[in-house]
Amino acid sequence: xxxxxxxxxxxxxxxxxRLFSGRLHIDGKGDFEFHQGMVQAxxxxxxxxxxxxxxxxxxxxxxKDMH
Length: 67
What we know:
Blueprint: E1 2-4, H1 9-19, E2 22-26, E3 30-35, E4 38-40, H2 47-66
């Protein structure tokens, strides 16, 4: 599990894009899982969790478009 001390969507997106599958923790945001190169929302997620997932996945899509 990778721990991020700050919420920097671009940095997190690069991590997810490179590893493709796993888990991560963002201080102040919580735990997240990612599969097939995209962050997944948890079943008991709140609105803030969904916003974070959407923002990170948007950055991942930008990375995919560049390659």
